Amino acid sequence: MKKLFFFFLLSFSFLFPLTGEETKSFNPLADHPETLKQLDKTEPIWVSPDRKQLILGGTVCLREGLLEFFACREKSKEHESIVSLPIKPHLIHAGLLIIGAKPGSPARFDPVFVPAKGEKIAIHIRWLDSGGVQKEINAKEWIRESKTQKTMSDSWVFTGGLFGTDSKGKKYYLADLSGEIFGVANFPGSVLDVPFESTADNDNLFYQPNTEKIPPEGTPITLILTREAL
């Protein structure tokens, strides 16, 4: 049912070519960008022609502090996320389905904790340094454990997020409202989450930015998502 719902959402905007006024504000640092298929006319989200990569455009928004997310929706949770994405989360969910990723289930806390489940998703980041040289790194390298200072070791999983129905019976995707996209603390609305218990209590947050490896705030970045099983 979820998969059908998201392909319905995309039926009016699926596979726009990477040309036109709507794409001038962001140029993805992807292999053969001219072949990418855009999922929405106004938002920086694309699928590779072989449907093995989901490409997202965003911006570095935080280099120091405590984290609840790796990435959030623009104008939502930038104070606790490294990356801000000007993309509706339901489009990211739909893009993951298009590249063949299998959703699982969000973390649950009641009556006992059950970790988030789903297919493992790898995230790589590309950006241009101050000299115009392209850099690439695994997104886990931008995150470290607060206590040990070790780089994040676990992969994200595609939970599938949560759906709701408003008072008029209209279906909505929770992350579109909350801005929760790729979490490092367990939030049930996150599109991707870590597959273990990770507190959202500010006194015990597990993760912080690996500041030395992150370019300046405001740097445009490209996220490349792939299924780890491939």
Write the element-wise H/E pattern from the N-terminal end onward: HEEEEEEHEEEEEEEEHEEEE
Please summarize the sheet with the most strands. Answer: 12 strands, mixed
Helix percentage? 10-25%
Query: What's the helix count?
Result: 3
Oligomer classification: single chain
The shape, in one word, is globular
CA-CA gap between termini: 25 Å
Structural class: mainly beta
Describe the structure.
It contains 3 helices and 18 strands. It is mostly beta strands and 230 residues long. The strands form 4 sheets. Strands 1, 2, 3, 4, 5, 6, 9, 10, 12, 15, 16 and 18 form a 12-stranded mixed beta sheet that branches. Strands 7-8 form a two-stranded antiparallel sheet. The chain has a two-stranded antiparallel ribbon with strand order 11-17. Strand 2 and strand 3 form a beta hairpin. It is globular, with a radius of gyration of 17 Å. Mean pLDDT is 88; it is low at 1-24.
List the SSEs and their pairings:
Elements: H1 2-9, E1 16-17, E2 37-38, E3 45-47, E4 54-60, E5 69-73, E6 81-85, H2 89-98, E7 103-105, E8 117-118, E9 120-128, E10 134-138, E11 143-145, E12 156-158, E13 163-165, E14 171-173, H3 174-178, E15 180-183, E16 192-193, E17 207-209, E18 220-227
Parallel strand pairs: 5-6
Antiparallel strand pairs: 1-2, 2-3, 3-4, 4-6, 4-18, 5-15, 7-8, 9-10, 9-12, 9-18, 11-17, 12-16, 13-14
Helix pairs in contact: 1-2
